[in-house]
Each structure stands twice: as structure tokens, then as C-alpha cells.
Automatic annotation (TrEMBL):
<feature type="signal peptide">
    <location>
        <begin position="1"/>
        <end position="19"/>
    </location>
</feature>
<protein>
    <recommendedName>
        <fullName>Lipocalin-like domain-containing protein</fullName>
    </recommendedName>
</protein>
<keyword id="KW-0732">Signal</keyword>
Length: 218
């Protein structure tokens, strides 16, 4: 589960409805505001390996180092080269957050990835839209959920595949022409996510991180 979390959140699954890919985000990028409470470093223990060594995951949420980037030089997981050579036009990222995930696996290998996200708040729930770019053009989105309770950050890697399928069968969501993404517009997605959040993000699919502090509370 934890290894799958790392793989999926780094956008390495293929673009299909089973991987919960969306044509539109939960809110427009131009309306995004940085979620200051989420900024910081977070830690989750994954137990110990067969030799008794700890396996861990670290999550850092911050801001991109510059207001614009060149896709070819970025090193972010958001950029998609499926359509051929990637354009190198500048991409403005001043209203996005930078998420860095580092995982120490059971064999003590370290995996790390960076990706750009922008937040949406619906009621009391927080989501992160993860755009997949070709150059500076968005192709599709992933949508994660997260909740902050004091020094705890609970994350859901992606909406539940089964719930997405059932919503498509019920006609509340609609697959794209090639059945490889959810095609509904932002307004429809927002309504569905509000009404079906519990099915889309069940508690057993979550992971909880603790905030890393560099000082002691008095």
C-alpha cells in the first residue's frame, strides 16, 4: 500500500479512468491561493524492514524556487512527454505549491520526486489538483485529498477507483471518448466531490503524517 502510494502520487500510473484522471480540476489554477497551513515538513513511519531498520516517508510542502520554470529543466513529475518532444515555453507557477516526497524503502533504497500542485477547498475538505503538463499546456489532472488537524496531515492518494466506476455507471460522472479520463467540467466535479466525498476517499485509504518541528513548544 505504501509503495503504491508513492508510485501513484508521483503520477506514474498510466492515464486511465481506473487511475482517476480528470480533464478538469476542482477549481481554476488562476484562482488558486497558497494553503499556508500545509507548508512545512511532514513524516510518516512505515515500520521496520526484515533487518529491523526503519522504513519512512517524508513529505515537504513548500513553494517553487522561482515564479516560472522551463519544463525541460524542471525535474518535476508533472511533465508528460507522451506526445513527442516537449516544448520549452516558460510556465508560471507563482500560485502553485511544490510537494517533495521522499520514501525510504525496506531495502533502504531512497526514492524521491517533486511535483507541482494547487489547492481547492470545498466546505471543510481540502484537495490538491496535480496537473499533468506537456510543455506549459495542461493535459489532465490527478486530484488528491488532505486534511490538517493540528500537527497531523492525513492524505488520500487518489479517489477510490470503485467509487469512480460506480459514479460513472450511475451517470453522475462521465468517461472521456477513449474511456481514459473523467470528462466532466469543474462545476460537476465539485458537486460530485461534495456529495460523495466519503465514498471517494474512505478512511482505510488514508495515510497520516506528523509535522516535523525544529523547535520545542513551550
Amino acid at each position: 500500500m505504501l509503495r503504491l502510494f508513492f508510485i501513484l502520487i508521483c503520477l506514474s500510473c498510466s492515464l486511465n479512468v481506473g487511475c482517476s484522471t480528470f480533464e478538469h480540476p476542482l477549481s481554476p489554477l488562476e484562482d488558486a491561493e497558497i494553503h499556508q497551513e500545509a507548508i512545512g515538513s511532514w513524516y510518516a513511519s512505515k515500520g521496520k524492514d526484515d533487518e529491523g531498520k526503519p522504513t519512512e516517508m517524508f513529505l515537504h510542502i513548500g513553494l517553487p524556487p522561482a515564479s516560472s520554470i522551463k519544463p525541460k529543466e524542471s525535474g518535476y513529475a508533472n511533465f508528460n512527454e507522451v506526445k513527442g518532444e516537449m516544448p520549452d515555453d516558460k510556465l508560471w507557477v507563482n500560485n502553485m505549491m511544490l510537494m517533495t516526497i521522499t520514501s525510504i524503502e525496506k531495502d533502504q533504497r531512497i526514492q524521491s520526486s517533486n511535483m507541482l500542485v494547487f489547492p481547492t477547498k470545498l466546505g471543510n475538505n481540502h484537495y490538491a489538483n496535480v496537473p499533468s503538463f506537456h510543455g506549459n499546456q495542461v493535459i489532465t489532472y490527478k486530484i488528491l485529498k488532505y486534511q490538517i488537524n493540528g500537527d497531523e496531515l492525513t492524505t488520500w492518494l487518489l479517489p477510490n477507483d470503485q467509487a469512480i466506476g460506480e459514479l460513472i455507471q450511475a451517470g453522475k460522472l462521465h468517461a472521456g471518448e477513449k474511456k481514459d479520463y473523467v470528462a466532466d467540467d469543474t462545476e460537476t466535479l465539485r458537486q460530485v466531490f461534495v456529495e460523495h466525498d466519503a465514498e471517494l476517499f474512505p478512511p482505510e485509504k488514508s495515510m497520516t503524517f506528523r509535522r516535523i518541528k525544529l523547535w520545542k513548544d513551550e
